[in-house]
Amino acid sequence: MAGNEWINSYLEAIIDSEPGLEQARESLLLRERGRFSPTRYFVNNVIGFDDTDLHRSWLRAQATKIPQERNTRLENMSWRIWNLARQKRMLDEKQTQRLSRRDMERQKGLKEAIADMSEDLSEGEKCDALGDISAHSESIRGRFHRISSVDTLETFANQLKGKQMYIVLISLHGLIRGENMELGRDSDTGGQVKYVVELARALSSMPGVYRVDLLTRQVSAPEVDWSYAEPTEMLPPRDLEGFLSETGESSGAYIIRIPFGPKDKYIPKEMLWPHVPEFVDGALNYIVQMSKVLGDQIGGGIPVWPVAIHGHYADAGDSASLLAGALNVPMIFTGHSLGRDKMEQLLRQGRLSRDEINSTYKIIRRIDAEELALDASEIVITSTKQEIEDQWGLYDGFDRGLEHILRARIKRNVSSYGRFMPRMVVIPPGMDFHHIVHDGDIDGETDGSEDHPAFLDPPIWAEIMRFFTNPRKPMILALARPDPKKNLTTLVEAFGECRPLRELANLTLIMGTRDDIDDMSSTNASVLLSILKLIDKYDLYGQVAFPKHHKQADVPDIYHLAAKTKGVFINPAFIEPFGLTLIEAAAHGLPTVATKNGGPVDIQRVLDNGLLVDPHDQQSIADALLNLVAEKQLWVKCRQNGLKNIHLFSWPEHCKTYLSRIAACKPRQPQWLKTEDDGENSESDSPRDSLRDIQDISLNLKFSLDVEMKDDKNNDHCSLDPEDNMIKSEHAVLAWCGQKGTREPNFVEKVDLNAGFGKFPSLRRRKYIYVIAVDSDSISGLFESVRMIFAAVERERTEGSIGFILATSFTMAEVHSFLISEDVSPTDFDAFICNSGGDLYYSSPQSEKNPFIADLYYHSHIEYRWGGEGLRKTLVRWANSIIDKNGEDGEHVITEDKNISTDYCYAFKVRMPEVVPPVRVIRRLMRIQALRCHIIYCQNGKKINVIPVLASRAQALRYLYLRWGMDLSKMAVFVGDSGDTDYEQLIGGIHKTLVLKGVGRGTTNHLHVNRSYPLTDVVPVDSPNIIESNESCSPIDIRNLLEKLGVFKC
Question: How far is CA 826 from CA 10, 743, 812, 841, in A?
């Protein structure tokens, strides 16, 4: 920058003002030798990210010919750089403050949890909770433990022999198929796609596993291949030997594509969030039907439910949580990459504000989904220990110290006072080695021989070799999409700056596939253009290969070529969650150079086949590559170590550990199973009750059946019809349900076994079901909407073709009282979802005194991780801490309402809703203490309902589908303009939603003012299943809208 030394001095002065940059100041002397650029230093180090656009702008300004214009532009650039550095310092300060507040909250929550458990907490647990628990970490070999001995393998196989497990995997985004995967096509179709496909394939080949389904999105868009629209795709095993003996009619691994979201359109994962409920409903329907099919084949007529549902990434974690809750089966979660970690990185970069980050990446919605996955998961599978400590440690729902305490208490069989923590398990991804063939002579020529003529070389070799002037040189191989976080530009710079490395080796960059740079995303195109300019800058023509196309099947051949040339594989990413490509490279005999940030650290400790580098240190990267390329003995040692230890990462080893963890989970499934004979009169495809279910010890229903049997003995016309027996069993269950609940009001039916004869089959046989879920701060306001909806379909309601369900935050007692005062019959409704989904009742047509029957099957269905009394005490303590600071006596704002609380819903009255913190605050406080629950602000903020974590009004509807076979596509849900804080959960799905404009407006809307993300992030506003009425609509208007939705026919 000759003639503009004042700018250099200005920049150097700013650098000098930064703390801890002594080393950088010394490097300023390099400027005199033309090797240091203050601007580049600012871009890479002070600002914290590689802003190539900023540096390019500086170079253009520097090249301006008119001195006055050049000086002005350079001065403006200097101010821009200074401002970015200033923003970074401010962001760092805010980040420090935020982390400090978070640490204080966590320490407070941990102390409260310890205090609650202090009566029987051992001294060792107390010390470990408050101090350093690193001593309890497993060794690295322990973290990657595999079942390796022959005896252990035989024992494992014998344990699984005879089992026929059904496993469900979920991975929603990207383009997923079994063969010719288009990895690198876009940011959603990457390593996760390959991982889930290979996991499904490998699990299906294991003993004891009958079927594995990988659920994903069906994509029928014209811009993608037709294969992604196929509903089902079988994944044949790689090794057919020994597999055929295990096969059955529906056994094996399958990709199941569920249609949801916009039709005929492929959308990025950030746009999928509003459509998750639609996927959940479609997946639930599929799993129920498949469980019935498997039951007929291998279950003796009893449905075979999944032993686990495994969600991959946040969107699938959210879906798996809801599905596992609806089916009452165990859930497993793998994050792959985590939202909080990405948020922290983006904030440190300073490019975008928090709001801009959320708008672009829907990051808050993603974090909420990951927190829910922590709430619901039995097991969280990670690739590395670093992921547990540095990434999951950022979440409210996980604390390593508290986890250690809870594990210790479980082993000692001591109460955890309602606290639960998922088990974090390190299981590195596996790899399929069957296709890998190592050269017996690694010194063989690459251009063919008598035994291996050149024309048999894979086509991709010629595609790469054409770039090189000397193709015999060792190849440095990088395989990653052109994403800034993959740090490929630094790799090219390191290669270009190091002359000895350029003389000894070639560089190959496999950066996905492309037809035209202009068709690529702006981010990927920018990285690729930067690389091309660096190639030109350092004159690397003939030394760098960057082919435009490759197939997934070509990847092994690419690794093979690099190994044949005695090359090196490098992963220079800034942060690598795991590093599957490092394992693939090692399996092909390639030494590796990898980033020291993330999973490669653990991989390197196990394989010991390469070097770790600082991805920001260009010289370190060049030195590591040069050492491996130049020192033959080091290269051979790393190659041999990798090949010797690579078996620790095979798919069979991965699956053995995986299945052993599943086996340790407590089995759960719906409490009812279908009968062996459905009967011809049943119109439902849903699982139904059987005597085998009724005799379940956990429900202790024997006394009810004994009474029924005695009655049958006295009846000369005892029916042997299966449908008759099934209905009698239903009555036994429902009558017993009326007896068991200790908090049920006296108008709930208890003993009458004949009550409701034929009622529940009629619920199944309704042509349409209307769910009234309008939220109001008074029950009278709710029933205004009820009367209008009743009036709209009065004739059909009388005929019985339409059934009604009331879904509300009010208690059954409040509903019953109002029904009596308004002279409304309870039988006008088939079911009542009360307490925001904490309780479920049915109407009983034969009993006026006890017109309701409680479904305690539902309670057993939702009680997973319910904190009980430990949760209640913590909630009361929190409620007592909220006071009116402006009041004279500091009165309590929130008080426990014991009169309306039930076993599965703790209710609190709110005197001043405007003083109560947002619902996300109390959710965070409960999660910090490992208390899992669903907190709902309702009735215009005048009431707080706390129910089990996987319970809700929307989940109750899924339960009714599962229990009684209601067709969700023929269900209409009525909601208002706004509602309780669970309002949005009722809108999405395959059911139809009618939004009554003007209803609920202004009364409950303030509950959503402090929403973490906009409603459009969770509600599919453009869905054809959602329709809005006009304000002040009439019954005729509602009737017309229902017909338009397809849930009513005149």
Answer: 80, 20, 11, 11
Point out which residues pair with 843 in neighbouring strands: 852
Q: How confident is the model at residue 811 (pLDDT cuts 50, 70, 90)?
A: very high
At residue 102, the pLDDT reads 78
Give me the half-sphere count of Cα atoms (radius 13 Å) on the Cβ side of residue 22: 1
Tokens of 399: 């604390």
Pair 550, 558: CB distance under 8 Å: yes
Cβ–Cβ < 8 Å for 929, 112: yes
What's the rounded Cα separation, in Å, for the pair 441 and 56?
A: 48
Q: For residue 1037, count CB atoms less than 10 angstroms from its CB and return exposed for 0-12, middle for 13-18, buried for 19 or more.
A: middle
Q: At CA 263, angle to CA 257 and CA 268, rounded to 5?
A: 75
Residue matched to tokens 């190592």: 438
Q: Could you report the per-residue pLDDT of 716-740, keeping only the tens digit for each?
A: 444 444 444 444 444 444 444 434 4
Structure-token pair, residue 273: 């969030």
Give backbone dihedrals phi and psi of 570, rounded to 5 degrees, phi first: -130, 135
Between CA 268 and CA 949 the distance in angstroms is: 29
Which segments of 401-505 are extended strands (E)? 423-426, 475-479
713 close to 819: Cβ distance less than 8 angstroms? no
Q: Is the dihedral of CA 840, 843, 844, 847 positive or negative?
A: positive
| DSSP structure string for 889-930 | S--BSEEE-TTT-BTTBEEEEES-GGGSPPHHHHHHHHHHTT
The pLDDT > 70 percentage for the chain reads: 76
Q: Note whether 773 and 975 are within 8 A (CB).
A: yes
Whether 289 contacts 295, CB under 8 Å: no
How would you list the strands of the sheet with 568-571, edge to edge? 544-545, 506-510, 475-479, 568-571, 592-595, 610-613
Beta bridge partners of residue 569, listed in sequence order: 477, 592
Can you tell me the distance from the alpha carbon of 1016 to that of 725, in angstroms, rounded to the nearest whole number? 48
Q: Strand, helix or coil at 477? A: strand
pLDDT digits (tens, 9 = 90+) for 859-890: 999 999 999 999 999 999 999 998 877 766 66
For residue 209, the surrounding DSSP H or E stretch is strand 209-217
Kindly state the helix (H) or strand (E) to which residue 633 belongs, with its residue range.
Answer: helix 632-645
Cα diameter, the chain:
113
Alpha-carbon span 57 to 59, nearest angstrom: 5
